[in-house]
Amino acid sequence: MEVIFDETYGTQVAPLKMHMSWPGQDIFHLYNVPENTARRTYYGLNYVPTFRWDGKKIKDPSDFANYPQWYAFVRTTIDTLSDTPAPIRIELNHYMTPPVLPDTLPDSIHVQVDIIAEQAVSGLLKLRGAIMEYNLRQTPLGVFYYVFRDMYPATVGDTLPNLNAGDSLHLEYAVAFDTVNYHTGRMMNTVWVQNDQAGTTYRKVYNTAAGHIGLVDTDVEEGIAPLYVALEQNAPNPFNPSTAIGFVLDRSGEVR
């Protein structure tokens, strides 16, 4: 699954892996029992592994004769769902604050979310976010990917108003960085808008956004970034009086 998700991460899918308390004591479940349990209860789960696609159950690995058939189904499902136009667009910006000496690790993860409605959307709309780590080892079982760590602002999410086409919302969050258990090079973030209103759209996810979280964040307006930058006269040095440092941006936009 990691190969499939890695190929499509951030463009077609935003995976989030929750760990349950069964069949044994899972250290990733024990790290955050209340929120793992809350999400299990929300979906009414009673076995693993089980998947939810855009908040809905379609099929699980147990529905197939072997895992190659399951993997083929996953790829087809991702393509099919990603081809369906989403009623909202989510723009996500996130970064970790650089540490200030004597600290060596950041203290917060900052998240900025913009929601733009492409179509009218109504119901009990909730914005939810989840901090993950990409690559964690659980001895003796091995390495796990896209592991859930913490939800923000909470498992219940932030309630959003009904949206008409063209409406937009801007939300910002500061999420505590666990300096004991988190690893700066592995942090990931997923945000999604979900409908909690009972009925046919219950638990439906209207769109998601996800990405790896960098340590710093610098926005560069399109069109102002130079093609080449030179640092002249890196002196005093009579034998090498000039040093040039150049870089080329593939495209204008954000630099991290």
Could you write a compact summary of the structure shown?
This protein is of the alpha+beta class and 256 residues long. The protein contains four helices and ten strands.
Key phrases:
256 residues; alpha+beta; Immunoglobulin-like; 2 domains; five-stranded antiparallel sheet; three-stranded antiparallel sheet; globular; disordered C terminus
> Which class best fits the helix and strand makeup?
alpha+beta
CATH architecture of the largest domain: Sandwich
Total number of distinct structural domains: 2
Instruction: Sketch the major β-sheet.
Output: 5 strands, antiparallel
Overall mean confidence score, pLDDT: 86
* H and E string: HHHHEEEEEEEEEE
Task: Identify the CATH class of the largest domain.
Answer: Mainly Beta
**Count of runs of 4 or more consecutive helical residues:** 4
Low-confidence stretches: 217-248, 250-256
Gyration radius (Cα, Å) is 21 Å
Give the N-terminus to C-terminus distance in angstroms: 28 Å
The CATH topology annotation of the largest domain reads as Immunoglobulin-like
Helix content: 10-25%
Shape: globular
How does this structure look, described?
By secondary structure, this protein is an alpha+beta fold. The protein folds into 2 domains: 2-219, Immunoglobulins (Immunoglobulin-like, Sandwich); 220-256, no CATH class. Helices cover 15% and strands 30% of the residues. The chain has helices spanning 2-8, 27-31, 33-43, 67-82, and strands at 88-96, 108-117, 125-138, 142-152, 158-160, 168-176, 187-195, 205-212, 218-219, 254-255. Strands 3, 4, 5, 7 and 8 form a 5-stranded antiparallel beta sheet that branches. The chain has a 3-stranded antiparallel beta sheet with strand order 1-2-6, with no helix packed on it. A two-stranded antiparallel sheet has the order 9-10. A hairpin with a 3-residue loop joins strand 3 (125-138) and strand 4 (142-152).
